[in-house]
Amino acid sequence: MAVTLKxxxxxxxxxxxxxxxxxxxxxLEQIKEVRTKDFKIANFxxxxxxx
Length: 51
Fold this sequence. Notes:
Layout: H1 2-42, H2 46-49
């Protein structure tokens, strides 16, 4: 019984760690995209921005 409980706990913990890793990576990817967009906008000549 205790062994089964421990295995279930380890499995659940592993799944939670996996989900957290995926969420962190997705968040980092979003930050990267936003920074890239901001950088591209900041480097346009001012004439281009005043449409």
